[in-house]
């Protein structure tokens, strides 16, 4: 018998450690066919991180993880893309300094994974440099996936002044995405709060919010039919 994927956020773990999995890969194909910049808001523990990791493995070209799933025969596996994966889900950011440390750790992880060296001094500049260096090295446009984009703000929602400072830091960071457009293949961001309410992506005016789109209603979580078929 397969195991129940309670709290598992890794697509790789689910597919290699004998867990039940509801096939959400048709949404991967649909997103890429229909656009480039997407935003999805869902409550915590709703499967956002798992779906983001599914996107990451698809763009990295890990076909072996998709055996028997919709995407196996409906994806161009000859194309592999460098993926910038950013998550603010772990831990609590109690200051601007802690947020900046997280940025630095994210860049170090990508430097190690892709065997590149970043030299720009500013966080904003290093984010832009990372995208451009990966595009040049792999001769492919980059994919940017951002999980829990708003968590550092929500960590400090009880401290309005600090929350506002952190929001401005994030706004400056995310502003890179607009200028990086020529280097990007695809961009997907998730969070709990709607971005229009946080005013954090003012420069990224082509971000499509699929939060309440009927076409993407089942992108996370389970429908009744999926529940009955997979977990019978």
Structure, explained:
It is a single chain. The chain is an alpha/beta fold. It has a single domain (about 10-230), classed as 3-Layer(aba) Sandwich (Rossmann fold), CATH 3.40.50. About 40% of the residues lie in helices and about 10% in strands. The protein has helices spanning about 10-15, 25-35, 50-60, 95-115, 125-140, 150-155, 160-175, 175-180, 195-200, 225-230; strands spanning about 35-40, 85, 140-145, 185-190, 210. The chain has a five-stranded parallel sheet with strand order 2-3-4-1-5. Helix 4 (about 95-115) runs parallel beside helix 5 (about 125-140). It is globular, with a radius of gyration of 18 Å. The mean pLDDT is about 90.
Tally of DSSP β-strands: 5
Strand order of the largest sheet: 2-3-4-1-5
The CATH topology is given as Rossmann fold
Q: How many domains would you count in the coordinates?
A: 1
Give the low-confidence spans: none
Shape: globular
Estimate the helix proportion, in percent. 40-55%
The CATH superfamily bears the name: P-loop containing nucleotide triphosphate hydrolases
Overall radius of gyration: 18 Å
**How does the major sheet shape up?**
5 strands, parallel
Task: Name the helix and strand elements from N-terminus to C-terminus, one letter apiece.
Answer: HHEHEHHEHHHEHEH
Determine the mean pLDDT: 90
CATH class equals: Alpha Beta
**Proportion in β-strands:** 5-15%
CATH architecture: 3-Layer(aba) Sandwich
How far the N terminus sits from the C terminus, by CA atoms, comes to 12 Å
State the helix count: 10
């Amino acid at each position: 018998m397969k195991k129940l994927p309670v709290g598992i956020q890794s697509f790789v773990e689910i597919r290699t450690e004998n867990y039940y999995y509801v096939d959400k890969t048709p949404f991967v194909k649909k997103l890429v066919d229909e656009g480039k910049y997407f935003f999805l808001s869902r409550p915590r523990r709703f499967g956002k991180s798992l779906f983001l990791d599914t996107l990451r493995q698809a763009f990295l070209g890990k076909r072996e993880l998709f055996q028997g799933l919709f995407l196996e025969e409906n994806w161009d596996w000859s194309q592999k893309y460098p993926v910038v994966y950013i998550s603010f889900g772990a831990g609590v950011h109690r200051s601007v300094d802690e947020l900046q440390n997280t940025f630095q750790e994210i860049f170090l992880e990508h430097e190690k994974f892709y065997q590149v060296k970043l030299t720009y001094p500013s966080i904003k500049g290093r984010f832009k440099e990372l995208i451009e260096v990966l595009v040049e090295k792999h001769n492919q446009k980059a994919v940017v996936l951002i999980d829990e984009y708003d968590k550092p703000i929500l960590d400090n929602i009880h401290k309005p002044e600090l929350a506002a400072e952190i929001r401005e830091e994030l706004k400056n960071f995310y502003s890179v995405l607009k200028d990086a457009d020529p280097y990007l293949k695809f961009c997907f961001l998730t969070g709990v709060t709607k971005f229009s309410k946080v005013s954090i992506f003012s420069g990224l005016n082509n971000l499509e919010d699929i939060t309440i789109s009927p076409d993407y209603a089942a992108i996370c979580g389970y429908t009744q039919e999926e529940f009955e078929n997979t977990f019978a």
